[in-house]
């Protein structure tokens, strides 16, 4: 028996090849998500010097704050606030639990990952730099990386699998070849679109240099989270204990 390809054999063969390849791509979605995470982290135990800048609706700079973020394995993160207005304050994330520690108090205060730090940057936006393990991912299809672009990205639908995540679900666009994150839509528990995120890579295109958040619930204000420096660092275990942090206003 022979197969008649008709007037456009090359196009038909291309469609058949794409259809055969698609299941393999869909099955590898978890690996794609881990690839995307590496652009934001790069190591299990990391120190990230971070600058957060909030902008007014006319695009001029409003405020900025500096943070030192110690992202450690097993979903543990310590954030030290470095700007004069917040000096001495700390945020500790242990899995699904978040605490705010004030230098004037010896009682850690429970907070949520949605707690605002500056502009539209929340605690979770600063403390969490991974999607893998926090979300289940489904490959939706291929779509323009940006509206109006001809370049195509993989679109992933992420659904939270843990209660302590910042967003209940995420729509994420990844570049097709190396799976670097391009943009995302961030939804809160009410399933409202809270923010969009755009990811800027460094000159070598090996890691995310900045994440730009745009408010979708208010006035479209922009907040830029810049990762000034990353280096591998494992902090002392006691730094990840909220009671120790409450008794120790100075760590370095």
From TrEMBL:
Stretch forming the signal peptide: 1-26
InterPro entries linked: TP_0789-like (IPR033399), UCP028205 (IPR011220)
CDD domains the record matches: LolA_like (cd16329)
Uncharacterized protein TP-0789 domain boundaries: 74-246
Keywords: Signal
Protein name listed in UniProt: Uncharacterized protein TP-0789 domain-containing protein
Species: Paenacidovorax caeni
Lineage, uppermost ranks: Bacteria, Pseudomonadati, Pseudomonadota, Betaproteobacteria, Burkholderiales
